[in-house]
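// run 5 | inverse folding | seed 20
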């Protein structure tokens, strides 16, 4: 699944022409699903331009309502704005970007159900939901998907969330499979992110903790090299090796990055390779999640 957060400017400014070329490269390489959200800056508008002329039934579009409060008016407004920017009359999947902080889960799920009934969203669900929140949401309306952070250096979702989704047939969409770039193993100690790149706010990408994560990323890169694959392919293949995972989001800022990433979906890791990854990953510092992604 193509992730539009980077081309929307979340990881630093991207020229619109480059953003559109990146999306079209993903389509050319066979990616047929895209992910966005109202909070992803210009991404929905750019996707609308890039997808113009594509057969609507050949592209699966996921978007999210990001801003509280999750009232009927707020969610309806967000969905209509997304549809206008995306140049479509429906999205395939519409998610609550975070669990409701104001108002009840019952109300929020009722509004999503209304969107389905009006033909504005084919499927609905949540993003960044834990087991308790998924359990509560299912009481009021079927939740078809949960989008969660899961990668080699952040395996928390694999303990309870992914098994729950597998048991209850809830689709799992993984974001940040490359740990926002760490697992590409292309940075060196002292790397500084631009102020318009939201990674400059991340605890794991700054200070002493950044050094700890870089060491692990480089060790994982050496393991990938021994197996004849790239660190990026290894990270993507590892995520997709979990039977609970339906899809993973690949965020790219250029056509070259799309080409670099897409082959990872075809790679299968051996049991020995997975064990060696686990031996390295167990040393990763635990970092509390910061906001929605």
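// decoded
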């Amino acid at each position: 699944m193509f992730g539009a957060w980077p081309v929307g400017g979340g990881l630093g400014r991207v020229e619109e022409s480059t953003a559109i070329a990146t999306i079209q490269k993903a389509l050319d390489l066979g990616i047929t699903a895209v992910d966005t959200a109202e909070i992803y800056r210009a991404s929905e508008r750019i996707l609308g331009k890039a997808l113009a002329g594509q057969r609507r039934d050949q592209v699966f579009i996921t978007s999210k309502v990001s801003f509280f409060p999750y009232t009927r008016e707020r969610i309806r407004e967000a969905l209509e704005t997304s549809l206008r920017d995306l140049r479509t009359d429906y999205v395939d999947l519409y998610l609550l970007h975070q669990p409701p902080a104001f108002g009840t889960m019952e109300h929020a799920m009722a509004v999503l159900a209304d969107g389905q009934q009006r033909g504005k969203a084919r499927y609905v669900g949540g993003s960044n939901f834990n087991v308790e929140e998924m359990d509560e949401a299912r009481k009021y309306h079927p939740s078809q998907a949960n989008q969660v952070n899961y990668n080699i250096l952040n395996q928390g979702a694999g303990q309870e969330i992914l098994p729950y989704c597998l048991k209850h047939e809830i689709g799992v969409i993984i974001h940040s499979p490359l740990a926002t770039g760490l697992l590409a193993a292309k940075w060196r100690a002292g790397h500084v992110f631009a102020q318009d790149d939201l990674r400059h706010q991340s605890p794991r990408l700054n200070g002493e903790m950044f050094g700890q994560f870089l060491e692990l990323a480089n060790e994982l890169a050496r393991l990938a090299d021994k197996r004849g694959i790239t660190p990026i392919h290894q990270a993507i293949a590892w995520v997709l090796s979990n039977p609970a995972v339906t899809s993973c989001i690949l965020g790219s800022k250029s056509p070259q990055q799309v080409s670099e990433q897409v082959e990872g979906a075809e790679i299968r890791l051996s049991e020995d390779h997975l064990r060696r990854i686990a031996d390295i990953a167990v040393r990763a510092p635990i970092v509390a999640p910061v906001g929605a992604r």
